[in-house]
């Protein structure tokens, strides 16, 4: 059962290309996004490392027509804005029972007419996140409790107005989707929405860059932080690593991704934090969301799952990390260290096999393949070992089936997946919440792109929460695993410290 139904309705889209003043479109795009910031439901899927294969497009919007929040099997949906087919229903709500992906399905409109001609992968549909524990019901996992943030398992925004930029070509679009009982009503709704988007185009201050001087000196360390709460310290983390190694030796699991949470004071502006982070550590799946529950500032480099309307799936799990060096010689040495590490390659290969198995549950027989294995991907603060797994959906399956088959991300669990999750549930001191879940969009035409929620800060009431971790295998060294977690959190910690320093004067 779903809270909203588009059954029997028609949809249409209207699009207008916005002419930027600069050739790349970046300055105009950032002013447009700045004009949306602060509006209800503002989201920015920010491919800050623009021009990369996974970072070609960015999307932004605000004022979704509906919002769905999921806790366990309970789905609460509220209509936020009157639409052509849902006139006089703004403010109405409903509660039904299902799972987080039922909520997505209820908010997706039918594929709009002329949608195939729009040259961006997202023209409207659903944007949001699904936290790590959201799939517990699918695997009968024990309840870990509400967690320190006490957030919904998933929040989905029904989006019918999207601004998009192609960073490669420097083109910007405004796109609106309308839904109605007849084609003419759907087209009228799309045209009306587009007029509101471009008359006038939002215009505001772009996000600030890095405050003050660039970071220098030794890298940020967990022990240097004034933590309010830490999920592990180095000693307790080391004991958890050893416990996992014992379970590996016993044959219970091959690998488990041990993570921990830290909580620290943050009295700065989250918008300034996002600006600092995208200047310091641009990422293909950076994101900024303003939700009533929290503000979300992320710089994830990892794709969980993408899908085309034609049914092609892609996952790009990351396993293996090294910090960037000081100067080209150290950089080359660290890159070679990762490339030649038998431990990291074994870790990566285990997760590739897990992802192949997950996608095989919904794919055409023989279509699952690995076109890229152990690819070394440079980022401003780290090197990552990334592999690519692709498959084609079998007839009768859709992208939501693929998400259900693959969730939670294998790179954040271990192998075998369920056994690793059970071990981690007993060892980790708090619910992961959004961290290690997925964030992104489902397009009305059947496509999707979801990232793994890592390298992300959750901001609320003067505090910031972030997580870090890594895959533990039998060859793992506890000190090295702690250092790797610090490396992954480094860019976020340095950006938080820089913005806090500005607040302090």
Layout of secondary structure:
Layout lengths: L9 E9 L7 H11 L6 E4 L10 E5 L4 E6 L2 E6 L13 E5 L2 H8 L17 E6 L5 H4 L14 E6 L1 E6 L4 E10 L2 H16 L28 E4 L3 H16 L5 E11 L4 H11 L4 E6 L4 E6 L2 E5 L4 E5 L1 E6 L4 H12 L2 H19 L8 E10 L3 E11 L6 H8 L7 E2 L1 H11 L10 E6 L4 E5 L3 E5 L2 E10 L5 H27 L1
Antiparallel strand pairs: 1-10, 2-3, 2-13, 3-9, 4-5, 4-8, 5-6, 7-8, 7-21, 9-10, 11-12, 12-20, 12-24, 13-14, 14-23, 15-16, 15-22, 16-19, 17-19, 18-19, 21-22, 23-24
Helix pairs in contact: 5-11, 6-11
Short note summarizing the structure:
This protein is an alpha+beta fold and 505 residues long. It has helices at residues 26-36, 100-107, 136-139, 183-198, 234-249, 270-280, 328-339, 342-360, 399-406, 417-427, 478-504; strands spanning 10-18, 43-46, 57-61, 66-71, 74-79, 93-97, 125-130, 154-159, 161-166, 171-180, 227-230, 255-265, 285-290, 295-300, 303-307, 312-316, 318-323, 369-378, 382-392, 414-415, 438-443, 448-452, 456-460, 463-472.
What this model shows, in words?
With 505 residues, this protein is α+β, with helices and mostly antiparallel strands. It has helices at residues 26-36, 100-107, 136-139, 183-198, 234-249, 270-280, 328-339, 342-360, 399-406, 417-427, 478-504; strands spanning 10-18, 43-46, 57-61, 66-71, 74-79, 93-97, 125-130, 154-159, 161-166, 171-180, 227-230, 255-265, 285-290, 295-300, 303-307, 312-316, 318-323, 369-378, 382-392, 414-415, 438-443, 448-452, 456-460, 463-472. A hairpin with a 2-residue loop joins strand 23 (456-460) and strand 24.
